[in-house]
């Protein structure tokens, strides 16, 4: 298995001992649940900032042609240094973007390109962080409130049809503590990895219980991740 395949598998099907198990698993559930709403099978999906393409097989299984776009040569479509896409206007039925927007310096250009290449009547399916630790790849510029994300999408010509919150603040504080403890424990010789795995399991079970009791209204406006399904305005 290549490094890219390992990353994709961890994002799509994380292990219960992974510190971000709850976030990644609930994010994947939300994305897969929304695929039937992006349009009829047979269309072409462009994944901007595709990376390891963790959800590619989900779109293919739903009957879509999947095309990855990224800044390096491993993707089918290579994003230009200025952030533009080498694709004609109105050339894709669906545009998707997962956990990329927070890393983009020029959000207006990024969303503008997504709007430009999207065919009339198409859909944008996008996820990004509401709250999370700093994680440059290679940069990390911002986080969104629900209201702010809807506003920025509207400014780029999109109407948000649905915005789903993924993991509320009660579980997220437990995940943050798990990250801190695991960071300290993992380098410990001999027992570090085993202790980290055990701690990850315990903290994930706690976070899952906390997520269950979090009121929907609190999660709605204080989510770790937002998944937005949009149409051209």
Largest sheet: 7 strands, mixed
Oligomeric description of these chains? single chain
Residue fraction in strands: 15-25%
Uncertain residue segments: none
* Average pLDDT number: 96
Termini, distance in Å? 42 Å
Helix content: 40-55%
Can you count the helices?
Answer: 8
What does this structure look like?
The chain contains 8 helices and 7 strands, in the order ααβαβββαβαβαααβ. It is an alpha/beta fold. Strands 3-2-1-4-5-7-6 form a 7-stranded mixed sheet, sandwiched between helices. Helix 4 (107-117) links the parallel strand 4 and strand 5 (118-129). Helix 6 packs antiparallel against helix 7.
Topology:
Blueprint lengths: L2 H10 L8 H14 L9 E5 L7 H6 L3 E6 L6 E2 L13 E7 L8 H11 E12 L16 H10 L2 E9 L2 H17 L6 H22 L2 H6 L3 E8 L1
Parallel strand pairs: 1-2, 1-4, 2-3, 4-5
Antiparallel strand pairs: 5-7, 6-7
Helix pairs in contact: 6-7
């Amino acid at each position: 298995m290549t490094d890219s395949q390992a990353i994709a598998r961890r994002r799509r099907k994380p292990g219960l001992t992974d510190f971000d198990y709850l976030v990644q698993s609930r994010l994947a559930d939300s994305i897969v649940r929304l695929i039937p709403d992006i349009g009829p099978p047979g269309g072409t999906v462009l994944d901007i900032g595709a990376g390891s393409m963790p959800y590619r097989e989900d779109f293919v299984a739903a009957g879509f042609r999947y095309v990855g776009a990224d800044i390096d040569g491993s993707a089918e479509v290579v994003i230009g240094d200025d952030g533009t896409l080498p694709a004609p206007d109105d050339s894709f039925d669906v545009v998707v973007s997962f956990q990329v927007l927070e890393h983009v310096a020029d959000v207006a250009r990024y969303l503008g390109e997504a709007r430009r290449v999207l065919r009339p009547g198409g859909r944008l399916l996008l996820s990004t962080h509401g709250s999370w630790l700093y994680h440059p790849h290679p940069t990390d510029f911002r986080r969104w409130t629900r209201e702010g994300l809807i506003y920025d999408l509207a400014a780029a010509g999109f109407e948000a049809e649905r915005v789903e919150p993924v993991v509320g603040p009660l579980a997220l504080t437990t995940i943050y503590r798990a990250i801190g403890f695991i960071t300290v424990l993992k380098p410990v010789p001999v027992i570090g990895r085993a202790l980290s795995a055990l701690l990850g399991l315990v903290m994930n079970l706690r976070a899952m219980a906390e997520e269950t009791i979090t009121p929907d209204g609190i999660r709605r406006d204080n989510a770790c991740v937002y998944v937005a399904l949009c149409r051209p305005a």
